[in-house]
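User: I'm putting together notes for a lab meeting next week and I want to include a structural view of one of the chains we've been expressing. I don't have a solved structure, so I'd like a prediction I can at least talk through. The sequence is below, exactly as it appears in our construct file.
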Amino acid sequence: MEKRVFNVSGDCKPDLHYMVDITSKLEQIRAMVDNGQYFAINRARQFGKTTTLRALSGYLRHDYYPISMDFQTFGAGEFENENIFALSFARSFLRILKRVFDPEERKRTEAVRNLENIVEAENPRFRLQRLFEELSDICGTADKPVVLMIDEVDSASNNQVFLDFLAQLRAYYIDRDVRPTFWSVILAGVYDVKNLRQRIRPQEAHKVNSPWNIAADFKVEMSFSKEEIKGMLRQYENDWDTGMDVEKIAGLLYDYTSGYPFLVSRLCKIIDEDVSREKLFYCKSAAWTEAGFHEALRMLMAEKIPCLNPWPES
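Assistant: Thanks for the context. Below is the predicted structure for the 314-residue chain, given as structure tokens.
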């Protein structure tokens, strides 16, 4: 079996990539879900949001039905009008639902079938209000609470249809004690939902029902700690036995990156794949040293990386 690699593009997969153990982060997020909170995970690009959401989906599976959507898969046409968006959302929701719901659970069969019929018929009168009524029926008949997670949520933040969607989501969440809805809502993106107000033209502001004023503060530390970095380096060392001083290298990585996940993984990848092939270092054992780290840092500083503007503060 091929050894794992350090990953700096897309989400990390434990079988393919060296990665930190994020169990403690998942436990903290799980506590927010258990409390039925609506919250947003807002961090810079390549900060591990998608990796965290995908891991969280599996972490919640036993007690919840996690519906993990990605608005990056929605093209501009999906936001053309309310009907198209409602049908597109429902279609994506149903596809994910089939993977997480028990098909033998008969309680919700009718509610799911109703939404399937609407999507199959491409009902031209299907709007957000009807969409949320159907979603409410599904949540109300499911045998476990349904958790909605939407990644890249800000990719649609300039669109009024999306803002209307958030307003409906807010309204149902506020009234969750009298009508079924998602137990918890998690929105992930670069920008804070609370700042979407700045993206609406003044003449359109009256259309939006304050979708940003219910999100709970998200205080889970997404940066890697020194201990978490050490755990990832030990995985690597178990595979390669370079003899590195794990304590020292982890300390350097943390001190120079403040635990920014992309920077940590990028430096490790450079040491592993580039520094170790240079004549001055010639092998992995020589690369995983303080001198090798500083060579990797020099290489990184010479790269043009759009997501690192500005460089994270220490």
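A couple of points you could mention at the meeting. Residues 198-211, 309-314 have pLDDT under 50 and may be disordered. The two ends are 38 Å apart (CA to CA).

User: Perfect, that's what I needed.
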